[in-house]
Design goal:
72% of the residues lie in helices and 0% in strands. It is mainly α. The protein is globular and about 60 Å long. The protein has a single domain, classed as Up-down Bundle (Amino acid/polyamine transporter I), CATH 1.20.1740.10. The longest helix is centred in the C-terminal third of the chain and has 44 residues, at 388-431. Helix 3 crosses helix 16. Bound molecules: tryptophan. Tryptophan is lined by residues 21-22, 24-27, 235-236, 238, 240-241, 243, 334, 337-338, 405. The site of tryptophan (TRP) has 16 residues, from helix 1, helix 2, helix 10 and helix 14. It is found in: Membrane. One of its GO terms (cellular component) is membrane. InterPro entries: Na/ntran_symport, SNS_sf. Pfam families: SNF. It is a multi-pass membrane protein.
């Protein structure tokens, strides 16, 4: 039975898949805007703390759960820590599906910008409103282009393209995933290295790098900076949604998960570092102002810089195309993992076929992606979010992203640390580890991480009390959304978790 679940052909296949999962929109789009928002150099001390204190130990734990049980996240939690832990596992799977819905929507827009490179997006100096493959007309900026793209129905077409690619890659599980990541992961490294070399060799590019990496101790006292760094780290390393456990469950029992965690985190944060250099160098060279929403930096500030990268039109277009192609492939190798986590969980528990599991996931998530790309303008001034889709995306992201990952991280540490016993996991990991873990690991899992996460989660909730997120923007006719979305998410995800935990299961 268990052999049918699939397995990686090689250790390299696993490392490529897991690092491909980790490296995605988080490393390019979200990291740079977080780092900017939280003050460049002020960000990276909390960031390193987040990496060593939270990220690495939790990745070891999530990888370890996969090889130890040979099962995906909810069932691994059930086997190691009982049914109540399984409930949290399913809740995280539900949240993964919410995130998948809007993650694919963002990829759809990136795809749209990539298409735009063949049309009017990257004409040096000018950028026309969105019209795929059209000739340039006179106009303002990449921002205009982006928002006029959002105001068409084209992104709906693009998300179907992205969903199609995801399902194609996932259709035979590990076999097809491995084939895709062998091509995409090296390619995205290549393009990113090209971009950073170009960025740093431009006049003034180095100053951007300095801004990003000069420590700034002033921001360190700000709780928001820490919360930003923690969430960023969880998201970037693909933790807290069952992804890494699913991928690790396809490895042989004797995999060295300490080493694998070090390798995957190193690759992920290395990529993030290079991406940060590339983006900040462009910002400084062209004195661009990255103010605005999370997406603005990658979707229209950087394209603006790319417009001026060269006076030779085809080179500009090529750079523009490659930048969005890079985002699309980096995002694809992540979105497949976001879908594989839930798919593996459903296959394991319900003993259904892969095709059926993928259908159960894809249908509601695709509807979610379409909702996030609805081009209805709700905010004419574009002060808030512009389109209905973008508002839905933004509010969903606020709740699911800020809370699910950290709450699941907290609960899994408590479950593994206190119910199973952190020492049991540590000894199991050490059995095959070249660098065995010391007792400090138990202390981190049992006390340090839960305390840090609980503090951050509670302080975030405390700050929510004054006004519901998103209620400050007048979304003509849709002002019920800021309340509806969090309620919908909680009811649906908790109901889903309850239903699946209740389902009978024999191993
Ligand atoms: N890590 C990916 C990124 O940086 C996104 C991602 C994939 C993810 N799987 C995940 C995030 C699981 C959280 C949990 O873009």
């Amino acid at each position: 039975m268990s052999t049918k679940r699939g397995n990686w052909n090689s250790k390299l296949g696993f490392i490529l898949a897991a690092s491909g999962s980790a490296i995605g929109l988080g490393n390019i789009v979200f990291f740079s805007s977080n780092a900017y928002q939280y003050g460049g150099g002020a960000f990276y001390l909390p960031y390193f703390v987040a990496l060593f204190v939270l990220g690495l130990p939790i990745m070891m734990m999530e990888f370890g759960m996969g090889t130890l049980t040979g099962k995906s996240f909810p069932l691994a939690l059930r086997q190691l820590a009982g049914k109540r832990a399984e409930f949290v596992g399913w809740w995280s799977i539900a949240s993964a599906m919410f995130i998948t819905a809007y993650y694919v929507a963002i990829l759809g827009w990136a795809f749209g910008m990539m298409v735009g490179a063949f049309g009017s997006l990257f004409e040096p100096g000018i950028t026309a409103p969105f019209a795929p493959f059209a000739n340039p007309t006179e106009s303002a900026s990449a921002m205009v282009y982006f928002f006029s793209l959002l105001a068409t129905w084209w992104p709906v077409v693009f998300i179907f393209v992205i969903w199609g690619l995801n399902l194609l890659i996932l259709r035979n599980g590990t076999a097809t995933i491995e084939r895709a990541v062998r091509i995409f992961v090296p390619l995205m490294w290549l393009f990113m290295i090209g971009l950073v070399v170009r960025g740093l060799t431009l006049d003034g590019g180095f100053d951007g790098a300095m801004y990003l990496f000069t420590p700034d101790l002033e921001g360190i006292a700000d709780a928001n900076v820490w919360r930003g760094a923690f969430s960023q780290m969880f998201f970037s390393l693909s933790l807290g949604l069952g992804t890494m456990t699913a991928y690790a469950s396809y490895l042989p029992k004797d995999a060295d998960q300490v080493n694998n965690s070090l390798l995957v985190s190193f690759l992920n944060c290395g990529f993030e570092f290079i991406a940060g250099l590339a983006i900040f160098s462009l910002l400084f060279v062209y004195a661009l102002n990255p103010a605005g929403s999370t997406l603005s930096l990658s979707f229209f500030v950087i394209p603006q810089g790319i417009n001026e990268l060269s006076t030779i039109p085809w080179i500009t277009r090529l750079f523009g195309f490659l930048f969005f192609f890079l985002i699309v492939i980096a995002g694809l190798t992540s979105s497949i993992s976001l879908i594989e986590g839930p798919a593996a969980a459903l296959i394991d528990k319900l003993k259904i076929s892969r095709r059926k599991a993928l259908t159960i996931i894809a249908v509601p998530c695709m509807i979610g992606s379409v909702l996030c790309t609805l081009p209805i303008i709700v905010d004419q001034g574009l002060n808030g979010n512009g389109t209905l889709g973008l508002s839905i995306l933004d509010i969903t992201d606020h709740w699911v992203f800020s809370y699910s990952l950290l709450i699941v991280g907290l609960v899994e540490c408590l479950a593994i640390g206190w119910i199973l016993g952190a020492d049991k996991l540590r000894l199991a990991l050490n059995q095959y580890a070249r660098y065995p873990l010391g007792r400090w690991f138990n202390v981190l899992i049992k006390y340090v991480i839960p305390t840090l996460l609980a503090t951050v989660i509670l302080s975030s909730l405390w700050e929510e009390r004054s006004a519901l997120y998103g209620s400050g923007v007048d979304m003509v006719g849709f002002n019920w959304l800021p309340l509806f979305i969090p309620v919908f998410w909680l009811v649906v995800s908790l109901g889903f978790a309850y239903y699946l935990t209740k389902k009978p299961y024999e191993a």
